[in-house]
Amino acid sequence: MGYRCIEYALDDGVATVTLDRPDRLNAFTVEMGEELVSVMDTVDADDAVRCVVFTGRGRAYCAGADLSGGTEIFEGDESGRFRMDRDADYGGVVARRFYASTKPLIAAINGPAIGVGITATLPMDVRIASTQARFGFVFTRRGLVPEASSSWFLPRIVGISQALEWVFTGRVFGAEEALRAGLVRSLHEPADLLPAAYRLAREFAEASSPVATAVARRMLWQMLGPGTPELAHELDSRGIFFLGRGADCQEGVAAFLGKRPAAFPMRVSTDLPEYVRQWQQAGEAAAFLQQRR
């Protein structure tokens, strides 16, 4: 597909995105970010993709922002006046695109994941890591604040005190600490990491409706925000109402009753309920539901 900073492959419903700048420890550039956004557009448009695994080429996952140009990658417009439409942190652009995915995302962290190398994985649904992986939210040591929307994601994943400790110290820590804190789901020997990621990806893909998975993913992530049980109840109810009369639900129930695997006919690209498309346009769940009342 003409990518220079990543590699994309698809096999049996599972896509693999490999960060591919091994000579720079897969350090993040705006070009890499643009390619990640582009590949997510490809993933979401392709009904053959059921799950995506992200990993890094060589001995690192991603060593953070490429600082070979000094502070240039952080500086934005030379006028010194901030405008979000022009000066948005590109790590956050990538993170928000991951957050908006209609497919499950798994990070298989094969080595050091520092700065944006770890923050950009936070909107992914599962992170697993090599026993040789290391992590660091090193921003304060560079005179910066966390980016890639991680001030929203990180406390929700590991709790506010752990998030603050890692950010305040900026220290690099090992895979065992990441596992204890819940930053990663499981640790694997290097040779076993990708096989473990693919087993999990196929478990996600083989038995579940792709449309129901896409809707459920959006529901669960958005209810981590300033929601209420009432909002969750209404979203649940809309999902049950619209999907409950759909072809996937009919097939899922028939397969259960017939004691056979399901063959779901609906497709994310064409069969998302209209309320989900309206929800996507409205942004947050509360805004969408307010418009509908």
Would you write up a description of this structure?
By secondary structure, the chain is an alpha/beta fold. The protein is 47% helix and 13% strand. It is built from 15 helices and 9 strands. The protein has a 6-stranded mixed β-sheet, with helices on both faces. A hairpin with a 2-residue loop joins β1 and β2. α1 packs parallel to α4, α10 packs antiparallel against α11 and α14 packs across α15. The model has no long low-confidence stretch (mean pLDDT 90).
Q: Roughly how many Å apart are the termini?
A: 44 Å
Total strands? 9
Q: Rg, please?
A: 20 Å
Ranges where pLDDT stays below 50 over 5 or more residues in a row are none
Helix content: 40-55%
What's the shape? Answer: globular
Query: Strand order within the widest sheet?
Result: 1-2-3-4-6-9
Structural class: alpha/beta
Count of helix runs: 15
Biggest sheet architecture: 6 strands, mixed
The helix/strand order is: EEHEHHHEEHEEHHEHEHHHHHHH
Binned strand content:
5-15%
Mean pLDDT: 90
